[in-house]
Automatic annotation (TrEMBL):
InterPro entries: 2Fe-2S_ferredoxin-like_sf, 2Fe-2S_ferredoxin-type, 2Fe2S_fd_BS, Beta-grasp_dom_sf
Phylogenetic classification of the source organism: Bacteria, Bacillati, Actinomycetota, Actinomycetes, Mycobacteriales
Naturally occurring in which organism (per UniProt): Mycolicibacterium pulveris (Mycobacterium pulveris)
Organism superkingdom: Bacteria
Gene3D superfamilies linked: 3.10.20.30
Pfam family, one: Fer2
Keywords: 2Fe-2S, Electron transport, Iron, Iron-sulfur, Metal-binding, Transport
Family membership noted in the UniProt record: Belongs to the 2Fe2S plant-type ferredoxin family.
Cofactor: [2Fe-2S] cluster
UniProt protein name: 2Fe-2S ferredoxin-type domain-containing protein
Domain called 2Fe-2S ferredoxin-type: residue spans: 24-112
Length: 112
């Protein structure tokens, strides 16, 4: 393998860091109304709701109480901390919005 080919291979495999999140919008369903929020990098889903003046439920804001639980209907997000949800609940789409950073272009969550 030549050096040129090796460099080319390296250039193709790019690991996108979290800071390069490309989320554009977050759709939030609360009280049977859907609000679309332009995503501001670094915001949690709860912060997105607040930026739209939505009265989304929350309490501890450290991932320990479960007050902010919503369900992810579209897209993906990762939780910084989760002391509440078990693996089955996470697999069903439940998420702690105070700890959730979106990782897809658009995200839709519903507060049930
Ligand atoms: S507000 Fe307590 S877990 Fe999110």
């Amino acid at each position: 393998m030549s050096d040129e080919l090796a460099l080319s291979d390296t250039a193709v495999v790019v690991d996108v860091p979290d800071a390069a999140c490309t989320t554009q919008e977050v759709m939030i369903e609360l009280d049977r109304r859907t609000t679309t929020v332009s995503y501001r990098r670094g915001d949690t889903l709860l912060q997105c709701a607040r930026s739209a003046a939505l009265r989304a439920p929350y309490s501890c804001e450290i991932g320990s109480c479960g007050t902010c639980i919503a369900r992810l209907l579209e897209g993906s997000a990762r939780m910084v901390n989760n002391d509440v949800l078990d693996d089955d609940e996470v697999a069903e789409g439940y998420i702690l919005t105070c700890q959730a950073l979106p990782t897809s272009r658009s995200v839709r969550v519903v507060y049930e």
